[in-house]
Amino acid sequence: MPLQVSNIDTDQIIPARFLKATTREGFGDNLFRDWRYNAGDVPNEDFVLNNSKFSGEALIAGKNFGCGSSREHAAWALADFGFKVVVSSFFADIFKSNALNNGLLPIQVDEAFLNLLFDAINENPTTEIVVDLEEQKIEIPSKNESRSFEINAYKKVCLINGYDDIDYILNLSDDIKKYEESRFSFNKI
Amino acid sequence: MEDGMAKTLFDKIWEKHIVKSKSEYPDLIYIDRHFIHEVTSPQAFDGLRKRNLPLANPQQTIATADHNVPTKNQHLPITEMLSRFQVETLRENCKEFGVELYDLGHQKQGIVHVIGPELGITLPGLTIVCGDSHTSTHGAFGCIAFGIGTSQVEQVMATECILQYKPKTMKIEINGTLGNGVLSKDIILYIISQISASGGTGHFVEYTGSAIRSLSMEARMTICNMSIEMGARGGMIAPDQTTFDYIKGREHAPKGQAWEEALAYWKTLTSDEDAKYDTEYSYKAEDIEPMITYGTNPGMGIGVTQNIPNVAMNSNEQEMEKALGYMGLQKEQSLIGKEIDYVFIGSCTNSRIEDLRLVADFVKGKQKADNVNVWIVPGSKKVEAQAIAEGLDKIFTAAGFDLRQPGCSACLGMNEDKVPAGKYCVSTSNRNFEGRQGPGARTFLVSPLTAAAAAVTGKIMDVRQLLN
User: Fold this and answer.
1) Same structural domain, B204 and B304
2) Do B412 and B397 sit in the same domain of this protein?
3) B303-352: pLDDT as tens digits
4) B1 lies in some domain
5) Cα(B367)–Cα(B356) distance, rounded to whole angstroms?
6) Which helix (H) or strand (E) holds B94?
7) What is the predicted pLDDT for the residue at B352?
8) What integer pLDDT is reported at residue A39 of this predicted model?
9) Which of residues 118-147 of A touch B (CB under 8 A)?
10) In this structure, how many other beta carbons lie within 10 angstroms of the beta carbon of residue B288?
11) Measured between CA atoms, how close is A78 to chain B, in angstroms?
12) Which of A62, A85, B245, B321 could be a cystine partner for A58, CB 3.0 to 4.6 Å?
């Protein structure tokens, strides 16, 4: 789904008034709430998520996606709605990290390729986009265009195997214990 | 980095906190202080329960209720059901896992980034995290402080560590003397207007220069607070005598021999003279005037006497049109004299006692304009108590301001304090995103002085014209 707007902040992805839940589920209902609905909760027919022409598991968005608040609810909302991939030419740091921690893959591509994606989807809303995490490659078969993307080696292993940061860190608990013994006493509370 | 090489302040603290470093993997970094609040912690506590893990270090975990609390009648139960449930969940979680909670009504309650420093929990040389992007505030003390998501909150709860790739470093130097009526808020709004809302992404910023050195701790916090608004992971200022004087004697600050040892260490916390940064910027304090934002990200800012540009630096036609359409403003328009509806003085950016004193000093003997509602919200119970002790409350009440109780309030449109759709709010907070202060609300970000000027005139004004 194409969302050709730059600097999409996490307050747009999920407004603060919808952060009151104490579980991780259900945030997809309020994804892009204030763009998706007009006053009186009437769906805004112009907004891409309400346009039946478009569908798919990839959100294609403008530069600096996910800036602002650190709320992980933004990643939960996108994943809960059904997105597996977000493509942009630039991601805010905390969003990127939150996405990777929730099995949502942020793919950073160059501006030219991003525009190519928008063009292809606008020409044909059913354009197929192929993402290969193993090969770190994103492809538009109909245009015969592809790019490789970066993902850090650690997170790639985690995503492919479903590993978790906490399991990894807990395996290093001896190192943590050793570190704690070396701390300045005045740094303790 | 090899020993012997010149290091930045950031490098020094980072290296001191590496538990494990492995090629291609993120560093495992030890966390000295973990602040939590009601909004971004419940799912993390749930995670601990699911894994059957204890909280690694309850002493280093500090909790308060701030985002989702009412700022009136805090002695009564919270009326909004979901907010009450979220605060109650925090209460139960803190009890179950042995965390000290500065709950509503507690004399140490307040916005998490206000209470950390005022209680002496925030110290130079530490690593501090919180599930809130404005954790960068604490960097004013010369520590590494940054916001994290809830999965990472759970990570820190479970292990007292966090996996992080080392960010790049950026130096922003401000030299010279600030003009009358120009505050530290104007410095940071100016910087963001220059390098854009994404210009700091991937970086940790160190603010240096004579103009920064001359600032009080509270003014420094305002600057570091908004580092995230240019996309930076955090911001920091090397500690100096101003820092040490602020910390000394505070409740959790080291005492006696520990103070002497800490002080000796803190004095080593400066960037080496020939340290290399990945990116550097330098500005003159004299070029900065009172600032105001006109658009829907904090990078869309101008000096208050300037006109809205055709296209903001680092922006494009389409983005400008969307932003100005939302704000109901025109290109090349001057904002001076623009009538406004609300003034909000508060948030983790500008709700400390010095902010309240500045505002009180300006409005003393004056009245708010008839066309505005003015909300003034202290950052913490301690700030509130201090304001009352100094009689500032009487000045605000006499001026017709609504002095409310501590919390995040109208900064984020989450609790009851919201700006109605289409209304203009001159705000000392940190974000002017669409809907940030309530659905359809239109935000102008400014300093506390410019906000005070808007409160008494009902318009956007150049506060310098109103100062004696």
Assistant:
1) no
2) yes
3) 999 999 998 877 888 899 999 999 999 999 999 999 999 999 999 999 99
4) no
5) 16
6) helix B81-97
7) 98
8) 85
9) none
10) 23
11) 15
12) A85
